[in-house]
Amino acid sequence: MRLDGTELTTGSITDVPGVKVGHFTEARRPTGCTVVLVEQGATAGVAVRGAAPGTRETDLLDPSNTVEHVHAIVLSGGSAYGLSAASGAVRWLEERGYGLPIGSGRVPIVPAAVLFDLLVGDHRIRPDEAAGYAACEAATASPPAQGSVGAGTGATIGKLFGMDRAMKGGIGTAAMRVGGITIGAIVAVNAVGDVIDPTSGEVVAGALDPTGSKPCGTTATLLRDGTSPSMEAGAATTIGVLATDASLTKAQCRLLAHSAHNGLARCIDPIHTVWDGDTIFAVATGREMQAADMMALGAIAPRVMSAAVLNAVKAAKAVGPSPPSAAELGIQDARR
Prior knowledge:
Blueprint: E1 20-25, E2 32-48, E3 55-56, E4 69-76, H1 85-95, E5 100-102, E6 105-107, E7 112-114, H2 129-138, E8 156-157, E9 167-168, E10 170-178, E11 181-189, E12 194-196, E13 203-205, H3 218-225, E14 239-244, H4 250-267, E15 268-269, E16 279-284, H5 294-315, H6 326-329, H7 331-335
Parallel strand pairs: 4-7, 14-16
Antiparallel strand pairs: 1-2, 2-4, 2-16, 3-7, 5-6, 8-9, 10-11, 11-14, 12-13, 12-15
Helix pairs in contact: 1-2, 4-5
């Protein structure tokens, strides 16, 4: 197994058997939503960090609570409004007979998390129930598109000094197979902080200097100045899903979600701020019918999540009024 991360760049969360992904990308302004479908049911957990989350059904994922399986997870733009997209996924699943059995019917379980992208374009346009339904219709087991699509369409990063000095975020995915177990991640990167290449320590994308030509280093600027400018409350948040075909309990899924946050911390700086509501779900399909080594999974999960973050910003492109991307500024080419 290579140790430089190269083996992760061509994989995707759909390498995990039983996982499908679909995007809805809004044509009227940069926003959208992404659904991770596990319609046959999967054990799940969640870890929420940062002070400004927007979520649905996360209490249900507590190991002490009753329901064991989810049927989809929705990641959406649109801030709190975007939580409506989960209702579209619920409707899509119910129409096809998926969900928790209740008498003669079924109730699909669809947790969700949202990111703040209302400052890019007309904030009155945001993902709704129809968008969530459309994302389910588009879901396949093929590798999903990355960059400025789905929940990553309106994502931006490096926003501490204002949107005029921010850069484009996006959605990315990665995967690894170790010891017969597959683990994959998908993440919409919409952070206050910069995205850092953990192998070099260089900024791949983030807050730009006053000329708008190159990253200035958010944390370096904070260390120099000692204070930060005022930001819109909740104006960021990175959200994602980690998936595996191992058999895990809800408690183990929650531990895995916490481990995945370590991957965010390796390549987003600063992370889990007062303006971020970073949320990572973990799902286990159990397709391999074997209990996983939690020590091994806990070590692999951050690597997979970090790779997904880097893929997100490297694949991103400016959409409409959104800020420039790493590719358009030539930054990622300089890091190769």
